[in-house]
């Protein structure tokens, strides 16, 4: 996996800005099986605002080839909140955060089952079980191994576990109990990583993804846009995810929470978010691309445009922040003429 960063991103971004790009031709190249270059990816991120609709139309050709007009819904459950020993600067649950978030150990069976019932009722295909931790302890592993088979048997939901850093033995145990995929985000580029976390490394995260892959589960991994990274950093992350073979990519937009080191940081426009989503689709054409945290804040009234390149969204709330009402998401999908991929029969 290559994670080299261009030595002069500012001059490269400037030169890309001055060149026109035929995004429709670029989409045709992707549909013929060609991988786009770093230069082309940067051109997408530098697409002028008045050309964004053309960019999205080109990206929709790729999305439609692989996913039609379907949208998959994910439901997120914060099964353990706060109490995390890591120092991820964006996270309200980290040890350096002063944000007033709930703090509790892994929830009991009844609450996890109640949340699974809500996920099924809201039309979600995947139930995401998340804990705040460096990695799961034995009690947490046992709780997951116990609840996953019951959820799958009763509600037919796919299960995505987000438990922090994993050993190969832990990954094997998750596979054995029925976990379908594991989420572990790269979050940003290798070069930018030390600026957002010091208690573990980018390489640690990559190693966890390799354990997940080797155990035979799908990899769910994406990142957060808006943490002070360069365009080159965003492209590097997208290409690293491609090279790792990640099947599902959640793209978050920083929700700067008071009490965290990144509080007050609001650098993104709706157009920036759309450009990033489009670039990830061109780089990872046949991979599930999910519009994730921060979409309501940063995309605002342009959220629906994101689904011309992305093919899934979280429905309901996030870990410690609120999302929009599920009915608004269903209406958005209907208004586009798209359809939700349900959890039964797909």
Textual characterization of the structure:
It contains 13 helices and 10 strands. The protein has 346 residues and is an alpha/beta fold. It has a single domain (60-337), classed as TIM Barrel (Alpha-Beta Barrel). Strands 1, 2, 3, 4, 5, 6, 7, 8, 9 and 10 form a 10-stranded parallel sheet that branches. Helix 2 (23-31) packs parallel to helix 4, helix 3 (38-45) packs across helix 9 (231-244) and helix 5 (109-121) packs parallel to helix 6 (138-155). It is globular.
Number of domains: 1
Average pLDDT score? 90
Molecular shape: globular
CATH architecture level-2 label: Alpha-Beta Barrel
Quote the CATH topology: TIM Barrel
- Residue fraction in strands: 5-15%
Rg: 19 Å
Describe the main β-sheet briefly. Answer: 10 strands, parallel
Secondary-structure-based class equals alpha/beta
CATH class label: Alpha Beta
Proportion of residues in helical segments: 40-55%
Element-level helix/strand string: HHHHEHEHEHEHEEHEHEHHEHE
How many strand units?
A: 10
As residue ranges, the low-confidence spans are 1-20
Distance between the termini: 33 Å
Quaternary state reads single chain
Tell me the number of helical segments per DSSP (H or I, 4 or more residues long): 13
CATH H level: which superfamily? Aldolase class I
State the main characteristics.
single chain; 14% strand
